[in-house]
Design goal:
CATH class of the largest domain in chain A: Mainly Alpha
Helix content of chain A: over 70%
Radius of gyration of chain A: 19 Å
Largest interface: A-B, 43 and 43 residues
Oligomer: homodimer
Strand content of chain A: under 5%
CATH architecture of the largest domain in chain A: Orthogonal Bundle
Shape of chain A: elongated
Chain lengths: ~220, ~220
């Protein structure tokens, strides 16, 4: 058990180092030996967890999906809003999420398959919007996969614009504006009227999710 | 006159070479000597037009704004749709536009001010939407600058997603979907009903604009 915990911690140390190096140098220019130096682990330890630079990058990319989960909501439209607003909040506050998003948006990393996060986020959105459709939250003409792709693609650009213009300071405001522009075209009015699209939503959901995750850790340790 | 034309052509040759080198190596790694070799011009000729690598990058960034102009439309909402759809068409077909957009989205080019294109496109959208508002095309609660920023930011991400997923093959479809999702929240129904948001709109506008630009060249030569 202690050994397993140590392995998890080493993996996390390596991923944090990789995130930092990719962010500083870009995917193309970054080297495994820079990541080794930054992480302060042995070559053996690194190759136990990751087989290549691409593997390390995919590890960083996957981190943005996994670590924090939005609580289930009765309204699936609110749940997708919460996923989006939580991601905006984490971009403002978590260097690992930022590194993953920058890798995703690195159009010069041509040897790296960057489609993964777009497709995975698209799937998350698609699933939630299908549930929303099943319980009558969407307007009749809406295609859940098309609307999910519009939200995922638009979010990617809104964050990039906010980063370029002011290093993410206005991000939650811009994302809230995106939601107010896209959702009225897709959601029935009675659901729209009950949504929380406020700028502080991301921070609220984050606090809630971390609390839920903390309880989950206790459950895991007991198991 | 012949000398002036030659200077314009040399500048264009250098910009095309710079676009290619930035696209291959990224802003950070690209060097002026690579651009010199690619362009096949003398050091003197290059420095006559551009003072630094940043200057070259700003030249590439500016190209996406200037070369082709959308014809004036009675509906200013249609005009902004035409600007967006034309840009999607040019991304699919023009390497210089592609290079400019990639530089804009290069979150690793930290020493390069990439806010310019976002702010310039935001200004274009803002102005058109203010005209749309003045002639009663927008819903009463809409803020032209906020809606313009949503469109510009979203477009940037939609193009990035299309590039990552399928090298721009589905771009016009995705951009048409974006317009169908954003405009109903901002535009009065009678205007909405008369908009052309079809996937072929960009190609149509391009043909029209090139024809108009051709005539403009003749006018300039005569002057």
């Amino acid at each position: 058990m202690a050994e397993q915990l140590r392995a998890i911690r080493t993996r996390q140390t390596i991923l944090s180092a990789a995130a930092k190096i990719f962010e500083e140098h870009g995917y193309q220019a970054a080297t495994i030996s820079q990541i080794l130096t930054e992480a302060g682990v042995t070559k053996g330890a690194l190759y136990f967890h990751f087989h290549s630079k691409e593997d390390l990058a995919q590890g960083v990319l996957a981190e943005q999906d996994q670590r924090i989960v939005v609580p289930v909501r009765p309204s699936k439209v609110q749940e997708i809003v919460d996923v989006v607003m939580l991601q905006a909040h984490r971009l403002q506050t978590d260097p690992m999420v930022r590194a993953g998003v920058r890798l995703t948006m690195d159009q010069l990393a041509q040897s790296l398959d960057r489609s993964g996060p777009f497709l995975r986020w698209g799937e998350v959105g698609h699933e939630l919007l299908e549930q929303a459709q099943a319980q009558g939250e969407l307007l009749p003409h809406i295609s859940p996969s098309e609307t999910a792709d519009v939200i995922v693609g638009s979010f990617a650009g809104i964050q990039s614009m906010s980063q370029a213009v002011c290093e993410y300071r206005d991000l939650v405001g811009r994302v809230s504006a995106l939601m107010r522009h896209v959702l009225p075209s897709a959601v029935v009015p009675s659901v729209l009227a009950s949504l929380d699209l406020s700028e502080s939503r991301g921070a609220t959901v984050y606090a809630e999710a971390v609390k839920a995750a903390g309880m989950q850790d206790l459950v895991d340790a007991a198991g």
